[in-house]
């Protein structure tokens, strides 16, 4: 039997460790999950974990990166289903906030992530989100859908609002009620950007 290419073996090893860690972080939380949990579940050694991720914190970063990519794919689908690009933008913001109700996202991304990795606004994934949102808002302003304000500034503020809404929900005593409040407030905020009929902003 032919040996697998080294790159394929490395990808498989990383995937096994990320999958095992994701299950442990999701069920036990970062603090309670041990590296032995990951390696035993993946059938690998601690040496493999250290080699590929450095430590437990590095593994958490990889798990969050994987979840974030999945969230992004889901949000693109939500946006694509909307009747207009602007409605797609709004729906995407709302869907992101509502994802904070999902146990895995709530625990790993919104609770353990900030506790271990620090301010989420400094995570690499946020930079990509800001760039994408800035481009969308620039287009909406140019076509006259929203007021002509600085698109990067608006992107920073909207991103901050939705992120903080998600963190609020994830840490609230009653996430369901908090989510409804956050969604309603976000809709009002976004509606405020729309150019009113008859106006020439």
Describe the structure.
The protein has nine helices and no strands. It is an all-alpha fold. Helix 7 (124-142) packs across helix 8. It starts with 5 loop residues before the first helix and ends in a 10-residue tail after the last helix. GO terms for molecular function: DNA-binding transcription factor activity; transcription cis-regulatory region binding. It holds the Pfam family TetR_C_41. Residues 34-53 bind DNA. Residues 11-71 form the HTH tetR-type domain.
Write the layout of secondary structure elements.
Layout: H1 6-28, H2 35-42, H3 46-53, H4 56-80, H5 85-98, H6 103-117, H7 124-142, H8 151-170, H9 175-191
Helix pairs in contact: 1-2, 1-3, 1-4, 1-6, 4-5, 4-6, 5-8, 5-9, 6-8, 7-8, 8-9
Pfam family, one: TetR_N
Keywords: DNA-binding
Protein name: TetR family transcriptional regulator
Structural class: mainly alpha
The helix/strand order is: HHHHHHHHH
Q: What distance separates the N and C termini? A: 68 Å
* Radius of gyration from CA coordinates: 20 Å
- How many strand segments? 0
State the share of residues found in helices, binned by percent: over 70%
CATH homologous superfamily of the largest domain - what is it? Tetracycline Repressor, domain 2
Low-confidence stretches: none
**Strand residue percentage:** under 5%
GO molecular function, one term: transcription cis-regulatory region binding
Domain HTH tetR-type: 11-71
DNA-binding region: 34-53
Keywords: DNA-binding
């Amino acid at each position: 039997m032919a040996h697998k290419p080294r790159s394929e073996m490395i990808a498989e090893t990383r995937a096994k460790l990320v999958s095992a860690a994701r299950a442990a972080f999701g069920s036990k939380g970062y603090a309670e999950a041990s590296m032995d949990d990951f390696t035993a579940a993946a059938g690998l050694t601690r040496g493999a974990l250290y080699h590929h991720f450095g430590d437990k914190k590095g593994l958490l970063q990889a798990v969050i990166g994987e979840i974030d990519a999945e969230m992004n794919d889901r949000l693109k689908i939500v946006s694509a289903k909307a009747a207009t690009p602007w409605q797609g933008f709004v729906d995407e913001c709302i869907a992101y906030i509502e994802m904070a109700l999902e146990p895995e996202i709530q625990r790993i991304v919104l609770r353990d992530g900030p506790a271990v990795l620090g301010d989420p606004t400094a995570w690499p994934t946020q930079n990509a989100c800001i760039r994408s949102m800035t481009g969308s808002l620039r287009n909406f302003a140019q076509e006259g859908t929203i007021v002509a304000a600085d698109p990067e500034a608006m992107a920073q503020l909207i991103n901050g609002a939705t992120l903080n809404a998600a963190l609020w929900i994830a840490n609230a005593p009653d996430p369901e009620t908090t989510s409804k409040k956050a969604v309603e407030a976000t809709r009002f905020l976004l509606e405020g950007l729309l150019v009113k009929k008859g106006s020439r902003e």
